[in-house]
């Protein structure tokens, strides 16, 4: 392929011209004009774009990322690329020329955020400038070549009216949830990966009062709250030297000292569950968060299990008591036919013989 051949020649010319102050694009354009002058202008421009894309961009993924309908990219080795559009996964015609080209792209993604992968550390998480979440696994853990996934997050998220229009909420459910948020009831949104939990969480925040001070805590800054008095906190993974990590639990503990009226946690997935329960039982009511679970009842059990991960020896009964007193509503989401994201059930947390349970408040018919 001409573009691939010219990329190799670019290295030599760039060494000569960089010291003269010639920009990379100008160097690439001159190289293409010399080698492919007989081609039409549009075709030469296409070759220039391909070289720049593979030199400083994200390679073949650039054209997929330019498609706003693409919600997630999944690369399984250099020649298997899948995309998710409107909740459906399909195979793309896009592919990398080799595993090495895919590795080069991965390094260009990770380098700006101070992350890297190698044989000793073959897994990494990162975030692109637009907030998209990236996960990488390379050999020897990924048997069939480097695996890359990019989960995209748009700059804007649908408000409650938009979720009603899309069928995620019904009018009855919209009113129920609006009243619950306004009454400062603590709400956990449960569901599987990609079920729309964060989108609903963002919509629920629309009913927080404009005069309330909100602190958001996330692994990757995905929430887009409309209030003006918002402090956004984002966790930080350890550096390549293994230092500087700031966890969700660290941020939650600090948030309690920031005089929040509301705390919104993107997802509870570790020992921070205990700190959240403690906050909910010490005057910080009205919190909103999400958790991975298969049902409202499972969500309660999962939060209980995560709280036990704090490792401070609290008995199960004490944690269940905090759950019963601190969490008010569980809103469960699932994917419907055609990939639609739907709220399927709302349950209230109640005391039960075993300590804590759920009572159905609303169910999709």
What's a quick, concise take on this entry?
The protein has 365 residues and is an alpha/beta fold. It has three domains: 2-56, no CATH class; 67-151, Beta-Lactamase (2-Layer Sandwich); 160-363, Rossmann fold.
Layout of strands and helices, then pairs:
Layout lengths: L1 H17 L5 H12 L5 H16 L4 H5 L4 E7 L4 E5 L2 E4 L7 H12 L12 E5 L5 E5 L9 E5 L8 H7 L4 H12 L4 E5 L5 H8 L9 E5 L11 E5 L13 H8 L6 E4 L6 H9 L7 E5 L3 H13 L7 H11 L2 E7 L5 E10 L6 E7 L2
Parallel strand pairs: 7-11, 7-12, 8-9, 8-10, 10-11
Antiparallel strand pairs: 1-2, 1-6, 2-3, 4-5, 5-6, 12-13, 13-14
Helix pairs in contact: 1-2, 1-3, 2-3, 9-10, 10-11, 10-12, 11-12
Summary keywords:
365 residues; alpha/beta; Beta-Lactamase; Rossmann fold; 8-stranded mixed β-sheet; 6-stranded antiparallel β-sheet
General description of the model:
By secondary structure, this protein is of the alpha/beta class. The protein has three domains: 2-56, no CATH class; 67-151, Beta-Lactamase (2-Layer Sandwich); 160-363, Rossmann fold, CATH 3.40.50.300. It has twelve helices and 14 strands. The strands form two sheets. It has an eight-stranded mixed β-sheet, sandwiched between helices. Strand 10, helix 10 and strand 11 (288-292) form a beta-alpha-beta unit. Helix 2 packs across helix 3. The protein is globular and about 80 Å long. The termini are far apart. The model is unreliable at 14-22 (pLDDT under 50).
